[in-house]
Specification:
Blueprint (H helix, E strand, L loop, with lengths): L7 E5 L5 H4 L11 E6 L4 E7 L5 E5 L6 E7 L10 E4 L3 E3 L12
Parallel strand pairs: 1-7
Antiparallel strand pairs: 1-4, 2-3, 2-5, 5-6
């Protein structure tokens, strides 16, 4: 019997200031690592690593709340302290960076 998979969710790490990071070899969105936890019981449910575009995908159970904790920052970035609340199937690396160039 196959288990039903949850919805595919994407996670994107992006720069809050692409005028500094875009084309700068000192910065990379590849290799950011996050532990994903279920909010209801703080259970670790996944670990993701971003690709060269700063993206990672994971299956999450529907109707559940989750949060991510950055465990490894990629080149040029500092480790973010504290959790990121995950919602709406499109998960963002930094709420402050949403809607800015480079953060699609």
């Amino acid at each position: 019997m196959e288990a039903e998979q949850g919805p595919l969710s994407t996670f994107s790490k992006c720069s809050a200031n692409v005028s500094i990071t875009d084309g700068n070899s000192e910065y990379s969105v590849e290799g950011a690592e996050y532990d994903i936890y279920r909010s209801s019981d703080n259970a670790l449910v996944s670990h993701i690593v971003t690709d060269a575009s700063g993206n990672a995908a994971l299956d999450l159970e529907p109707n559940q709340a989750y949060y991510a904790v950055e465990t490894k920052a990629p080149a040029g970035y500092t480790l973010h302290e504290g959790p990121y609340r995950l919602q709406d199937r499109q998960l963002r690396r930094d709420r402050a960076a949403e809607g800015r160039p480079g953060c699609r």
